[in-house]
Amino acid sequence: MTASRATRVVVVLGGVLTVCAAACTPAPAAPAAAPTGEPSPAAVLSPLAVFPLAEVAPVLGADNRMHLAYELAMANQSSQDVLLRSVTTLDATRADAVVTTLDGDALARMFRPSGDSAGATLRPGEYGTLFLDATTAPDAPLPGLLRHRFALGLQPAQAPEDIGPRDTDPPPPPPQNIEFTGVPVPVTAQPAVTLSPPLRGPRWVAGSGCCDTITAHRGATLAIDGTVHVPERFAIDFVQLDDTDRLYSGPPTDNASFRYFGTAVLSVADGTVVTVVDGMPEQTPGRLPAGITITTAGGNHVVVDIGGGRYAFYAHLQPGSPRVRAGDRVRAGDVIGLLGNTGNTDAPHLHFHVMDGPSPLQSNGLPFVFTAFTGQGVVTDEATLADTTKPDAAIAPIDRGLLSGPHRAQLPLNLQIVDFG
Ligand SMILES: [Zn+2]
């Protein structure tokens, strides 16, 4: 969202700050020459400190778009409230060509403040994370480096109890606008790894999948020993609909009511088993267990080094089911274990992701694509899948036209229904 005011003023905010309406001329790209020791004439003292959480790793999604899914953490260092008006992703390797702009409701939907600020606002000292999903055509040249243009509104800080309309209060002054461009984020040239599917059969739902929603996976920005990790950026929780499009039939507190409980989980690639954890009991479906830690969250699980600095993680397996031991060599298609409901889970499912280290959570999530699958539509209401209160599950609402048909070397997207092999 932009304002039409085009004046430029200068205010003091812990220093000199160039303030302008969002419609003022965008700052020119930083010179490509080596730094001279002086700030660029376009440099702006900004109220936000912005921290990219990882380099960007592109992946071709099942919508045939290249997705650049990444995160910008940010802290409001000023004494004013900061409203994020827009964030524009620029291709710094092509004269700051615009890749995409996030603003308005779409921006607010992808922004998560650490406190209770409404929308895309950060109060003084507050921290937040913006989850981006810039997409490009599959044949477009990929940026090697991104930069970002921020358009912000600044307002005198309001106490939390003063936020919201109150007839007796004088209206707050209109926000002043500020723009700045910076925050380089490298884009890896390494393509997403191609994997064979971890399951066989029809109607697997890619739960909590990538990329345009802050799902439980994408939103898992975990500070571990003080360093923020996003291990589940591309993770998928696989559940299977039956031939009546229900998740389960029978008592919802019985794992056996979920007919896919016990399905063989298959190795997605050749590799060497790094970790096998077994012995944790099945959970009761319908509620998340208490007392879960970062070491028990994955339940019974297997980690396989699949080469190239990548590790495959298979979580929530049935107790006693892992068929491999640490050090074993596995081939794509080998049975790893059986789909279960152990660890931090409220229904049987396979949690699968690829990461850049052997620790399932103390790592960075990397993208992957599956060799082949067939789309059968998209579940349009996730709440239907999450509702495990009825004796038989409700029929999942499905838009059968979305992302349907054959896919090759693509990542299933959030709530897509896929047939594997
Ligand atoms: Zn999961």
UniProtKB/TrEMBL annotation:
Pfam family, one: Peptidase_M23
Name this protein carries in UniProt: M23 family metallopeptidase
Keywords: Signal
Residues covered by the M23ase beta-sheet core domain: 262-357
Membrane-spanning ranges: none
InterPro entries per the UniProt record, alphabetical: Cell_wall_metabolism_enzyme, Dup_hybrid_motif, M23ase_b-sheet_dom
Species of origin: Pseudonocardia xinjiangensis
Residues in the signal sequence: 1-21
Domain of life: Bacteria
